[in-house]
Amino acid sequence: MTFSSAAVAAMNDDALMDLVQQATLSYFWDYGHPVSGMARERDNDAFGYSPDNTVTTGGTGFGVMALIAGAERGFLPRDEVVERIGKITNFLETADRFHGVFPHFMNGQTGKVIPFGEKDDGGDLVETSFLMAGLLTARQWLIPTRPDLAARIDRLWRGVEWSHHLRADGALLWHWSPAHGFAINHAITGWNECLITHVLAAASPTHPIPVSTYHQSWAKGRDFLNGRNYGGVTLPLGPDYGGPLFFAHYSFLGLNPHGLSDTYADYFAQNTAHALVNRAHCLTNPGSFIGYGPDCWGLTASDTFDGYNAHSPTNDTGVITPTAALASFPYVPKEAMEALRGFMTAMDGRLFGARGFADAFSPGRNWVASSHLAIDQGPIVVMIENHRSALLWTLFMSAPEVQTGLTRLGFSSPRLDKVAVA
User: Fold this and answer.
1) Does the structure show a pLDDT above 70 at 422?
2) CA triplet 145, 149, 152: central angle to 5 degrees?
3) What SS3 class is residue 285?
4) Which residues contact 285 (CB under 8 A, 6 or more apart)?
5) d(Cα 320, Cα 55) in Å, to the nearest integer?
6) pTM for this model (two decimals)
7) What is the mean pLDDT of residues 339-346?
């Protein structure tokens, strides 16, 4: 599927966004696991994970949101999308859970955990939060027409024991294993992709965490506050130069950052600054990498020519990842569209195919990834849709528990109703 520069130039912005969303949806719709309906982790056999049966918890949450966007935009048949969400729900009801928390990877046929690491063979609270964000979005979408399915999703959400992952000092821990307990001892702190984990943990109607965990652990972590100026752009939070751009995406597939603020930041300003700093680095191009420019920018975690890497301005190897710019449409729409148009014809047209853009590419090495990853494809569809219609933001933010969680943690937003907080 190749497009000439003239053909791309002739297409208006809406037509291009339609094309990209529809093709990228194929990863979840046509390549979804046939038994479970879940999103496969990737579509190649890198790192020893079977592309046939390894399904991803967080990537499925992203995929559920993407499928809803596809149904509402008329790209996918609504009834069949509802059926797919039902299949996913059926699978999750009997799949491995650990105090209600799902593992990072599962076998899409059996529901059994696939260890992510030596001691990471149990519940992954962060991946579960990405899944629950997608399922809560689906619940809100389904309540008017399929209250029965919405109720089953609600039971999965209520079953997550967020408070089980609390350490004695009040920190929230990422992993728990039935064999190793909390041996990994990885606290969910600092500015990264995990804001949504703390919001949902505070929002739980059954197993909530105390507010102090957010303020005394998450907000006290390494690389939380920044405040430095990068070429005229002040970055409120995060590591030097912002870190990989997925920090600005994963939590905000459902959380609407417009007007969302707390003691620490205005989150639309934070994410916009992060995208601008990331893009400015690519334009300045201190590593003198071939191909970087206004139509070729974006550093985030992805496959690379020698494995998998969390690319950022402080870890730049000459690899551009399309989801970085494309999932930033809500923050920098003009700059993201310039990148989208550039990606359509980059690398002699080898980037764009039946499942959307390849995961990553390196112009200087003439390398294009042979893979697509659920956690990269999902944000492209969802964030383009939020830019266009705010659909997923509207659905997720309508959940009463989300409003309660945000209010408990001290957030303000024009989209928060007045809710009673215990």
Assistant:
1) no
2) 145
3) coil
4) 292
5) 25
6) 0.97
7) 98
